[in-house]
Structures are given as structure tokens and as C-alpha cells.
Amino acid sequence: MNTKTPPSTAAPADTPAQSSARDLDPIGQNIESILAFYLDEEQHITRSQRTLETISGSLGRPLYLGAIVLFVVLWILANVWLHQLGFATVDPPPFPWLQGIVGLGAFLTMIVVLIKQNRLAKLEERRTYLELQVNLLTEQKTTKLINLIEELRRDLPIKDRHDPEATAYQQPTDPKSVLAALDERLATGERAPDLTENKKKESE
């Protein structure tokens, strides 16, 4: 009795064309890198932090504002109505209990928002540090390419001309000197020229 083997359910391997197409897609690679960065940050969020940020997200919606206004209006109307009918009121005017509840709610809301802002500030600091590292690495690669092109130009059997701009670009950028020059300009109050004003003057 012949037995038929079941068809294989394994996923087909990527062809060389598909792999090369994926490698030649810089936009897709950049998006995957950015998503991986944020997914890594999400994995480090604790359960309590996630709960507080969920609450913070709900506090920033118009529905929350409407609920607060509705609560305050109903509280005032109920106490005024009970007072006019001669019944004992829970919070007579000037409504000290209402003021305490609203103040406590505002204090808790501020704490929840600050907790989320602190985490976002740390995330922004890491992202800024990453951008700085990438920019410095890009500058180093660009300097290396300029040096290689200059070496190739000198080795080619053509007239060797002096290019002062290329010579200046061959020198790697020193971040300390750039920051020192920036601090010096900021200390003297020097500002960058307004490009919009310059364009208006040129058009006139």
C-alpha cells in the first residue's frame, strides 16, 4: 500500500532577487530600524508605568474635560437644590469639599503627566545621543571618502590641480571646537541671520 507524503508546509526561502531587493530598499531598512528602536523602548516600560501612561492618555482627551465640568455642575446644582428645599447638604456653599476634590484631582493629574514626561525626556535624550553618534560617524565616513578621492586624483595621469576646498574638507570636524565656537557666539549674543528677511531684501 502506497502512502502519500503530506505536502510540506515550510515557508519558501527568499530568492536571491528578493533578498537583494530588500537590501536595496534603504527606506524600508530605515523604517525597520526606527521601529526596532521604539519597540526596544516599549519593552523596558514596566506594568505600572504603562498603566499610568494609559491613564495619562485618557486625561488628555476632551471627554475627560467634559466629565469634570459635568461633575462640578451636578455637584453645585445638587447642593444648592437640597439647600433650597431645606434638606441637609453634603457640601454647602462655598463648596469646600468640591474645592478639595478638584484640587486633589489636579494634583494627581500633574503627577501622572510628569511621570510620562520624565520617561519621554529620557527617550528624547537617548534619541539625541543616537543622532549625534550617527552624525559623527557620517562625518568620519565623508572625510574618509574625500581623502580616498583626493588620493585617486593625485594618482591619475591628469594635471594635479590644487583644490583648497577639498583640502579643508579633508580635515575631520572636531566636535569640541564646534561647540566652543557655538558657545562663544551665544555668549556674545550673536544670532544667525534671518533668511526670510534676506530674501525680502533681495526681492526688493
Automatic annotation (TrEMBL):
Locate the region Disordered: 1-24
What keywords are annotated for this sequence in UniProt?
Membrane, Transmembrane, Transmembrane helix
Amino-acid biosynthesis as UniProt keyword: no
Query: Carries keyword GTP-binding?
Result: no
In terms of InterPro entries, this protein maps to: DUF1003
Top-level taxon:
Bacteria
Name the residue ranges with Low complexity bias: 1-21
Please give the start and end residues of each transmembrane region: 63-82, 94-115
The protein here is known as DUF1003 domain-containing protein
